[in-house]
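Appendix B. Raw example, untouched.
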Amino acid sequence: MSERAVVFDLFHTLVDPEPLYPTGFDKRRAIATIAGVDPAGLVGFWNDTYVERETTTVDLVDLFDRHCTALGRPISTDDRDAIDQVLGVAVDQALREPHPEITRLLDDLGQHTVIGVLSNCHEREVRSWDESPLADHVTVFGRSSRIGAMKPDRRAYDWIAENLGIEPARSVYVGNGGGDELRGARTAGFGSVIHMNAFDRQHTAVTLDEQARRADDADASVDTVADLAATLHHLVDG
């Protein structure tokens, strides 16, 4: 393997659903209301099934139905549709309508560089990927739910390298740093690791201290898409 590539994280790196959520929105509590079950219990179930959601292709409505059925309240057909719509809030729009600067960046980068995406995600989160203008510029899209491993597990990085046919040491990894993905990319042998902070710095989902901690795991930290583009062109074309 000798191809050079740029591998991106997806959410909060290429697309950012955070500003698209309604104020005060909590999908788990919204689903509990639809299903007519205790919100705290459903939140606990959601937390307990994190690894299953992210590393298998389980249907999320079926997953919630497992919890509700155990409580004697199986989810009805109508409620299944409503829950599915709640699960798609913000993420569908974020994928279908990415920031124009990001689309231009991938369009330009893809003219001379192989692009991959490696995402920790469940199946519902990325249902609209094929409708995203970003998809046209990505050679391989790796999702943890199908790989069977989440970043920072070395298997996730090995999977994207093998399927792209690249040499990590000659390639760049870009992510916002959630889940210690940047540290994992460094351990997996990526030649350059970039902390993409352009979206996280615009809202309060990630604290300033956490942003700084993530930046320490990278070779460079960028706060705008323009800075990311300049950094990538220097690394890829230099």
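End of appendix B.
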